Amino acid sequence: MTQILPAPIDVGAERIARRTRTREVVRAYIALTKPRIIELLLVTTVPTMMLAAGGLPALGTMLATLLGGTLAAGSANALNCYLDRDIDAVMRRTGNRPLARHVVSPQSALVFGLTLGVIAVGWMWATTNALSAVLTLAAILFYVVVYTMGLKRRTAQNIVWGGAAGCMPVLIGWSTVTGSLAWPPVVLFAVIFFWTPPHFWALAMRFRDDYARANVPMLPVVATPLQVTRRIVGYAWLTVATSLLLWPLATGWLYPVVAAAAGAWFLAEAHRLLARVRRGAKTRPLRLFHLSNSYLAVLFLAVAVDVLLFG
């Protein structure tokens, strides 16, 4: 009688499979933090710290703030992914997120987000000051509780007020250097606050069907394209006008020149989008979305260079 032996185990293949799985899980946890959003937050933090210091801030303070800010933003974004996992699964734009693909369990994402938040606040308290730690905690709570849990699924004004969470890094950056707050970071807070609606509404116009499918009342879902683009133009004007208020408060001549030129560029694209809607032409709102990112980066770069030249 012939004895049937078990097939030999390919140890090498098993090791490769385990390593592949580990890399996939690590990438999934990184994806939960939404690194692209974190990059934008850090772009606004460093120039604000330079403005507060009148030059380059202490390297230790800058690195501590950037690490704390990264952890805090990662915490808020991971908790957002946990709370929004149901709508992420039905939207094409977010269908590849880790929870939608079941690469990470909801419980693991929740623990991960909470852990990052606790570490972030503790780190800021230990390495910077109490005010910065409190502002860090407020930013996380505002994004998770006020925006994600309270506003996002209930009102078309969700991104207007919820966007305040993304403005917090300028207050945190200033406070880590000075231990207090002042008018310049408040102005920069207002710039980002007014910039957020046209930035995000342009994206929401492109993915309107996604938000409608998920029953999320983003403005382009509940308003006509003409109404949306008119508001985009209005907020774009508020953004540019507010950006110029920083000049008499804290900068030399370079910043207002760049702010005016970049603002004209931003406004031209917003008006172009409105004109296309009025003509019934193809809107291409992602052009404004991408340009708005560049506008904000240029604006804060101008703050940094101005400080180095005239601080």
CATH architecture of the largest domain: Orthogonal Bundle
Assigned CATH superfamily of the largest domain: UbiA prenyltransferase
Per the CATH scheme, the topology name of the largest domain is: Tetracycline Repressor, domain 2
Give the averaged pLDDT, no decimals.
93
Outline:
The chain has 311 residues and is mainly alpha-helical. The chain has two domains: 30-179, UbiA prenyltransferase (Tetracycline Repressor, domain 2); 182-311, Four Helix Bundle (Hemerythrin (Met), subunit A). The protein has 15 helices and no strands.
Task: Write up what this structure looks like.
This protein has 311 residues and is mainly α. The chain has 2 domains: 30-179, Tetracycline Repressor, domain 2 (Orthogonal Bundle); 182-311, Four Helix Bundle (Hemerythrin (Met), subunit A), CATH 1.20.120. Helix content is 77%, strand content 0%. Helix 8 (168-178) runs antiparallel to helix 9. The termini are far apart. The mean pLDDT is 93.
Task: Please render the helix and strand layout as text.
Layout: H1 11-32, H2 35-53, H3 59-83, H4 85-88, H5 106-127, H6 130-151, H7 158-162, H8 168-178, H9 183-206, H10 208-213, H11 219-222, H12 225-244, H13 246-250, H14 254-279, H15 285-310
Keyword list:
single chain, 311 residues, mainly alpha, Tetracycline Repressor, domain 2, Four Helix Bundle (Hemerythrin (Met), subunit A), 15 helices, globular
